[in-house]
């Protein structure tokens, strides 16, 4: 305790050896001093007994400081190694071996056999004649009905209103406790092509107030189309977004769909694409992005401006949220009797960290 | 074409109208389509073997045509108009000595004779979901549907069903239990019939007993059961539901013996191998899976690009792969060229010799 920091390592090592020795025989004061001298001589290379590890020191403060030293040591070694490699690479010039690509989970993704090959005729035919063919053949224009679960609270209502500004031809309606199965035929008769239901859940923490969080979205393509149920998370309303731009205008945005590679991913991608009208108005310079990474779909809405030929600046407007697909059901919303095309089964599908389905 | 179809041991019908054949031993899948123009109204609804030697597959489509596919020659040999789309989809297809039996959703059950004369017509009620033929007595067929209880018909006396099932007793709230028969199976070596319903029940009926109510009732899951199949070993039944859960149920007590994992979409078709403990399942997730019934493990998984409606297991040729099982082998899809008959006909047909089984007893 009176000893200074600099000699701490020696001190600890001495203590360690002392405790070890004490197990075997009673120690006089002479021996530790000898030991200490020995330690001093071989100070340059920290020589601990081979089975020593930092976690064996019982004193928390000493252990913590030992560990910090250990980390420092390791970091220094790593930097030295890096510098050496860089020098070698420079020296070799052109003959240097190619740079190693670091392994990431996205790199190591297990190859999915349902990945769509662009030249595959059967898949192209399947997609060309599925439920979205009417939209993709430009026979219908999207018209979206946005509603919520019953009795929504402020945040969900504001979210729905903001969604309605982002998606053109979207109408928000109050739910009034109506059954979705009865709402759907009425929507079809009024020409809606999409029904979007934002679900709110009651988050009841232990003793405090009852808060509500928006946590689910059901997207139902209307004439007889598939129904997708998503888990909604990370919802940020416009006022929670930092450095945002002005509110979105009425122009039709462009749509970017990233990384939907598998057959299921294709279906979901088409589901999102069919929400927006076909011809974007480039005057509005607005773009909606659905980016799929590791089965999470990130939605962002930006306004872009080209500063010169190479650079573009973007401003985030509008709400931001992430979606995770829970199930895709064939047919309109019928959770009890409908047939599911894909259901997320956690124990079977999430067993590998490198396998993704979208 | 002929060679490819001769080695296929599993036949599947898809929603795009393509008949697919899969050879598990060679790990290949083939598409057999009649023309290069496919259309959604050729979607395959039902499939059945054309004869007991399994040399012909009958394929029924949404537009009312029944096509005959010869597995030896590898081409569609005949097409027959058996109704039109206004009567609903085919829900059952069967073959007796010289005639073909079809049933559609509106309840019209017809027996088509070879020479296009005097079809026998029976009205089995509305909203029929399934019609199946008794494999041992070919003149008995069973039908059932939504609010249409199980009825067994004898085609020689088609005026009245020989057995109509009665609904179970009212439930614990004293309310009528709704009826929705989704699939039917005849238990071999007995008179009994198993049905699975859209209200996640499995019923066993015994026409030879005086009671018309089910002899056994079992429940599985919370979702409608869509397909059913009886394995070669007695006493069990395999069912699948709309969530992709496959289960083996015991028919003595009605308990779940185990479930088969792996499916992620609704099960549309199930077929057990006639002699081996294997079951093939296909569904909306576009995969064919073959599970072993003994240890409930997945033996083969094949990606087939279109949603699949029906599956048929052939009873031959699997001996080879069964003794050298490959776990979830990658099956490559091979595109079959249509109408290259001349090339194939000029070549010798290759007949595979089944390998001799290793002698393991005594």
From TrEMBL, chain A:
rRNA processing keyword on record: yes
Locations listed in the record: Nucleus, Nucleolus
A GO cellular-component term linked to this record: preribosome, large subunit precursor
Domain Brix span(s) in chain numbering: 142-334
PROSITE patterns, sorted: BRIX
GO function terms (MF aspect): rRNA primary transcript binding
GO biological process terms, semicolon-separated: maturation of 5.8S rRNA; maturation of LSU-rRNA
Major location category of this protein: nucleus
Superkingdom of the source species: Eukaryota
Role, per record: May be required for ribosome biogenesis.
Protein name per Swiss-Prot or TrEMBL: Ribosome production factor 1
Organism: Danionella cerebrum
Automatic annotation (TrEMBL), chain B:
Phosphoprotein found in the keyword field: yes
SUPFAM superfamilies reported in the protein's UniProt record: WD40 repeat-like (SSF50978)
Top-level taxon of origin: Eukaryota
Keyword Nucleus among UniProt keywords: yes
One of the record's GO cellular component terms: preribosome, large subunit precursor
A Gene Ontology BP annotation from the UniProt entry: ribosomal large subunit biogenesis
Quaternary structure and interacting proteins, as annotated: Isoform 1 interacts (through WDR repeats) with NVL; the interaction is independent of RNA or pre-60S ribosome particles. Isoform 2 does not interact with NVL. Interacts with MTREX; the interaction dissociation in a late stage of rRNA synthesis is required for appropriate maturation of pre-60S particles and depends on the ATPase activity of NVL.
PANTHER family membership: NOP SEVEN ASSOCIATED PROTEIN 1 (PTHR16038), WD REPEAT-CONTAINING PROTEIN 74 (PTHR16038:SF4)
Protein name, per record: WD repeat-containing protein 74
């Amino acid at each position: 305790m009176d000893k200074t920091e600099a000699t701490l390592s020696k001190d600890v090592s001495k203590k360690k050896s002392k405790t070890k020795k004490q197990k075997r025989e009673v120690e006089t004061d002479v021996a530790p001093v000898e030991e200490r001298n020995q330690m001093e001589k071989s100070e340059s290379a920290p020589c601990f007994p081979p089975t020593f590890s930092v976690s064996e020191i019982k004193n928390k403060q000493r252990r913590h400081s030992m560990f910090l030293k250990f980390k420092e040591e390791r970091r220094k070694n790593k930097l030295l190694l890096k510098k050496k490699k860089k020098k070698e690479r420079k020296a070799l010039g052109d003959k240097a071996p190619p740079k190693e690509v670091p392994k990431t989970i996205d790199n190591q993704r297990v190859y999915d056999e349902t990945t769509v090959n662009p030249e595959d005729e059967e898949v192209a035919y399947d997609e060309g004649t599925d439920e979205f063919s009417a939209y993709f053949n430009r026979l219908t224009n999207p018209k979206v009905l946005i509603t919520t679960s019953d009795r929504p609270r402020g945040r969900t209502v504001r979210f729905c209103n903001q969604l309605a500004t982002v998606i053109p031809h979207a109408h928000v309606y109050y739910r009034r406790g109506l059954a979705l199965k009865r709402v759907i035929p009425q929507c079809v008769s009024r020409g809606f092509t999409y029904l979007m239901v934002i679900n709110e859940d009651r988050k009841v923490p232990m003793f405090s107030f009852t808060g509500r969080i928006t946590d689910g979205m059901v997207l139902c393509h209307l004439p007889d189309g598939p129904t997708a149920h998503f888990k909604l998370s990370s919802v940020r309303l416009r006022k929670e977004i930092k450095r945002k731009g002005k509110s979105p205008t009425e122009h039709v945005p462009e749509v970017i769909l990233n990384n939907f590679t598998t057959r299921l991913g294709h279906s979901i991608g088409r589901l999102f694409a069919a929400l927006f009208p076909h011809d974007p108005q480039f005057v509005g310079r607005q773009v909606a992005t659905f980016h799929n990474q590791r089965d999470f779909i990130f939605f962002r809405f930006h306004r872009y401006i080209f500063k010169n030929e190479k650079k573009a600046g973007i401003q985030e407007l509008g709400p931001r949220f992430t979606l995770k697909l829970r199930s895709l059901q064939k047919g309109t919303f019928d959770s009890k009797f409908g047939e599911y095309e894909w259901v997320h089964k956690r124990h079977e599908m999430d067993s590998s960290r490198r396998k993704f389905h979208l | 074409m002929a060679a490819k179809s001769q080695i296929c041991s599993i036949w599947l019908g898809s929603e795009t109208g393509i008949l697919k054949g899969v050879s598990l031993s060679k790990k290949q899948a083939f598409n057999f389509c009649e023309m290069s123009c496919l259309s959604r109204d050729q979607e395959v609804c039902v499939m059945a073997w054309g004869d007991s030697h399994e040399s012909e597959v009958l394929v029924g489509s949404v537009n009312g045509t029944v096509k005959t596919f010869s597995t030896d020659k590898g081409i569609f040999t005949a097409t027959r108009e058996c109704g039109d789309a206004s009567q609903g989809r085919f829900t059952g297809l069967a073959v007796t000595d010289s005639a073909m039996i079809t049933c559609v959703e509106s309840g019209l059950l017809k027996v088509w004779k070879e020479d296009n004369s005097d079809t026998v017509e029976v009205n089995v009620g509305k909203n029929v979901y399934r019609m199946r033929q008794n494999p041992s007595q070919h003149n008995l067929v069973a039908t059932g549907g939504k609010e249409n209880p199980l009825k067994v018909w004898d085609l020689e006396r088609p005026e009245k069903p020989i057995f109509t099932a009665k609904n179970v007793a009212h439930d614990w709230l004293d309310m009528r239990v709704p009826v929705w028969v989704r699939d039917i199976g005849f238990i071999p070596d007995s008179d009994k019939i198993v049905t699975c319903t859209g209200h996640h029940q499995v019923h066993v009926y015994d026409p030879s007993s005086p009671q018309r109510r089910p002899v056994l009732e079992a429940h599985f899951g919370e979702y409608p059961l869509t397909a059913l199949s009886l394995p070669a070993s007695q006493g069990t039944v395999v069912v699948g539901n709309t969530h992709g859960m496959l289960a083996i149920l015991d028919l003595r007590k009605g308990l779940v013996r185990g479930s088969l994992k792996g499916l992620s979409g609704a099960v549309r078709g199930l077929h057990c191998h006639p002699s081996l403990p294997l079951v093939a399942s296909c569904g909306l997730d576009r995969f064919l899976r073959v599970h072993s019934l003994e240890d409930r493990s997945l033996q083969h998984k094949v990606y087939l690009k279109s949603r699949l409606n029906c599956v048929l297991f052939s009873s031959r040729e699997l001996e080879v792969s069964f003794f050298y099982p490959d776990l979830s082998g990658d099956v490559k899809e091979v595109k079959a060229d249509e109408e290259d008959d001349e090339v194939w006909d000029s070549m010798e047909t290759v007949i595979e010799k089944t390998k001799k089984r290793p002698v393991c007893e005594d």
